[in-house]
Design goal:
about 240 residues; alpha/beta; three-stranded mixed β-sheet; 6 helices
């Protein structure tokens, strides 16, 4: 009798173990969450489209860091952020997992403002923070600066001029090229008219551009666009014109 009872208890215990194991395995499988995709948000460079989803996906796949299809606990968040931040057009990158089983990636891109082709044969871009970007062949229309421009000048004086031009709808439409002479004098090449606009240094550039704009509107419209070969506002409160010979 006792043996029969023990046998029944053993069978019940084994059955209970099987039920517990099945439930535990089910719970474990339910706990595994798979990444369904990347939720990408890009700021700063949206107007240019220099950074997009295809670029981010390709970059992560090349480094073996594509999160799609992986369990969320296996995704290398720090590795993904590190790879993105090494890209020359990425300023900031933040990654985190969402409740919807997605990987959210927030990217702040660098915005190039001017392309520099200097006297040393160097070709680079300057972004809105004054950083030098060496990424070549960007498919975006930007002002071009030529002449005696080293990287310090590009990140400082040149950036001041470019920002001042960018804040003015008049000058954004008018300036085709910026040139810097051996003596450090800044010249603007306009789209309309066969003359040079001479700013001198970058000091007080906003006021210099306003003086030039007033002269354009009140002077050149009356005398003609090609009467002068140069118009200078290098000196305070003056507009100095040199006529063609």
């Amino acid at each position: 009798m006792i043996k029969k009872i023990l046998s029944i208890l053993a069978v019940l215990a084994f059955a209970g173990y099987l039920v517990y194991s099945a439930v535990a395995m089910t719970d474990r499988h339910e706990d595994i969450r798979i990444c369904r995709g990347i939720d990408l948000h890009i700021s700063d460079s949206l107007d240019y489209g220099l950074i997009d989803g295809d670029m981010v996906t390709s970059l992560l796949q090349e480094r073996g860091l594509d999160p799609v299809g992986l369990s969320l606990d296996r995704i290398d968040i720090e590795g993904i952020e590190s790879v993105l931040l090494r890209h020359p057009l990425v300023g900031r990158a933040q990654c985190y997992k969402t409740a919807g089983d997605m990987l959210r990636i927030n990217i702040s891109g660098k915005v190039p403002l001017v392309r520099v082709l200097n006297n040393r044969g160097q070709d680079f871009y300057v972004d809105s923070r004054g950083e030098i970007l060496t990424q070549h062949s960007l498919a975006v229309q930007l002002p071009v600066a030529t002449g005696y421009i080293d990287r310090k000048f590009a990140s400082d004086d040149l950036l001041d001029v470019v920002n001042a031009i960018d804040r003015s709808e008049f000058w954004k439409a008018q300036v085709e090229q910026i040139n810097v002479t051996r003596e450090g004098q800044i010249e603007l090449v306009p789209r309309v008219g066969d003359h040079l606009l001479i700013l001198g240094t970058a000091q007080d550039v906003e006021n210099k551009l306003k003086r030039l704009e007033n002269f354009y509107r009140k002077g050149l419209d009356n005398v003609g666009w090609n009467k002068y070969r140069s118009i200078s506002v290098a000196y305070e409160n003056q507009v100095v014109c040199k006529k063609r010979k």
